[in-house]
Design brief:
This protein is mostly helical. The protein has one domain. It is built from 11 helices and no strands. The longest helix is centred in the middle third of the chain and has 34 residues. The termini are close together.
Length: 307
């Protein structure tokens, strides 16, 4: 449970850093640099003190990365501009947990107790209260439908990626191997980077071509502006807190707990973002965010006490 809570805190810090880097560099560029740096950091760990590509389940971890980092993140970054961050986060965090719990039950036979199910639902309800959009969405029907579909795909990617990681750990145990969380994160991110790199490189090439033609590349990045040196500090923070140490703790949690227990705790990430956003961005939380946070934290505490 400690690993899941630590992953949540690190993911929330990564969200704040990602917000800074996305505004300065654009979403595709920021995400690509994040994955490249994280792969480098994780490779140093895995091949230095970890198990490298060993452990007896590299194939399963690789597939988990393709599904989670690859399919899930690509869908997430396409859903964000269509639905906005609040509705996208609400969909992904609230749907990933039940997708994972149902899949792990059908595939691996892992059953959750009624108390664990109830606590998980309380956590998801708290997240929904805190991050649900405050106003009615005035979106074209086509954009709304595509965005909702992409949000479901992103949630499936996160949920199924977690279950495949659980299967990988089962194979590690079956083969008598050993894989620490950081090494598992490295083996996963290789699959995600292989899946996303062609798309990211194509978009970066397109942006450079448009820049030469004088076109606007990304409305979030002012034309002609150059990011300051400090933004690269946020790129490093995003890489370390998210796909490096954060995912390492996430894999550590999945090694010992069912995905239906881990994901509801990780679903409180939008709640944990609130104090970081206030300290770094000056974003004052609303009363509803505070109430939702209290509900979610209460569910998380209950989940840790239930065995």
């Amino acid at each position: 449970m400690f690993a899941a809570f630590l992953a949540t805190l690190l993911f929330s810090l990564s969200v704040v850093a990602a917000s800074r880097t996305t505004r300065a560099l654009g979403g595709t560029t920021a995400n690509f640099y994040r994955l490249c740096l994280a792969t480098t950091f994780l490779a140093l760990w895995a091949h230095g003190v970890g198990q490298g590509l060993g452990g007896g389940a590299f194939g399963w971890f690789f597939v988990s990365g393709v599904v989670g980092f690859g399919m899930g993140d690509l869908a997430l970054y396409q859903a964000l501009p269509r639905l906005g961050p609040r509705l996208t986060i609400l969909m992904v965090q609230c749907l990933a947990a039940p997708f994972a719990a149902l899949t792990e039950w059908l595939w691996m036979g892992t059953r959750l107790s009624p108390g664990q199910l109830l606590a998980g639902l309380v956590i998801l309800a708290g997240v929904a209260i805190a991050v649900a959009p405050r106003e009615h969405l005035h979106l074209p029907r086509r954009a709304l439908m595509i965005g909702l579909l992409l949000g479901v795909v992103a949630a499936l990617g996160q949920g199924l990626g977690a279950v495949i990681s659980r299967k990988a750990y089962a194979m590690v145990e079956l083969n008598g191997g050993s894989v620490d969380g950081m090494t598992a994160a490295y083996q996963r991110i290789l699959g995600g980077l292989l899946f996303t790199a062609p798309y990211a490189l194509a978009m970066l090439t397109r942006d450079r071509w448009r820049a030469r033609e004088g076109a606007i590349i990304d409305s979030a990045v002012p034309a002609g502006s150059r990011p300051g040196r400090s933004i690269w500090i946020w790129v490093v923070v995003n890489s370390l807190a998210g796909p490096t140490v954060g995912v390492g703790c996430y894999q550590w949690a999945l090694a010992t707990q069912p995905s239906g227990v881990v994901l509801p705790i990780v679903a409180t990430t939008p709640i944990a973002v609130i104090p970081f956003a206030y300290l770094v961005e000056g974003d004052r939380p609303s009363l509803r965010s505070v109430v939702g946070g209290i509900v979610a934290v209460g569910g998380a505490i209950a989940l840790t006490l239930i065995r």
